């Protein structure tokens, strides 16, 4: 409520969208949601409300539901999320993570770079309360905030006061520690972003094997969380350890399956981090007049054919289709011969292996594969074959 009051004091109402979530923990949570909605109605501010669809009991489940809701509102409204986290929240979070054995990356906590804005993070909770009192800002206090059932409440009401009585600089020390951790984390993320040659792909990214091959496992455990974050993946301690080992010992074509719907596939030249549930388009007709967008690929008519396999002559007197590579696929090599080459071998020789191979397109004339974009093409359809042909070019939008 203090964040809302402060925002309404300096921003026009049309610049603010309020998203308030009822966690379904009881009447106080519902009253809080209604209080916010009524305040916004009086102020002329858009308010989006929702309620948990099921009973949630753990802190993780409550937090995940809240952030899914906030993220969805932000996407649909093209908005930036701002939360009312305070300095006290940072102190509690750092101590919680210390007790759970977090490393430097985790100890940055709310000081880590984020797309979420936290304008009250430099203020103590007592200052927030004083602001509310000074400006007559009402709020609803949820009794669950005092329940020792939740770890954060035990930290807030029991452990921090006890430790603080023994060390009066504890809160200041924890904040200083997290600032150093945030600086260290930012340094690692800059190194990963600027020095490793990572290539973004649809649904993931590729890390050149050569960028990591000289690192030991402790070094790899530092880099992999920052690498994964570029793709929007969060790794737990088990996944980090597994990836550190896999980076050093994984063979071409093998994969490490991670929690959260992610996997890393070892290709010849890269470690490919992908969403394991990435959807692959099905078979589609290639329109000869307009071309087609097929997943991250765009095949379109062209003025001519170049020397590489990113363009090809295709017959205009047959139905052309595009579909993903399948095991057993062969490319018809020469017009008027029985020559064929396995597409799998062509892809592997071009460095396309693992997860990326499963999403690579092939173009067919009738039932015959005549083009593997970017890899190889048949001369079944050429300007020399006597068949009417059209030139097509392929682009991959990564």
Q: What does this protein look like?
A:
This protein is of the alpha+beta class and 398 residues long. Among the domains are: 196-275, Uridine Diphospho-n-acetylenolpyruvylglucosamine Reductase, domain 3 (2-Layer Sandwich); 284-396, no CATH class. It is built from 12 helices and 18 strands. Strands 3-4-7-6-5 form a 5-stranded antiparallel sheet. The protein has a 5-stranded antiparallel sheet with strand order 8-12-15-16-17, with no helix packed on it. Helix 4 packs across helix 8 (170-195), helix 8 packs across helix 9 (217-230) and helix 9 (217-230) crosses helix 10. The longest helix is centred in the middle third of the chain and has 26 residues, at 170-195. It is elongated, with a radius of gyration of 28 Å. The chain starts with a helix and ends with a strand. The model has no long low-confidence stretch (mean pLDDT 90).
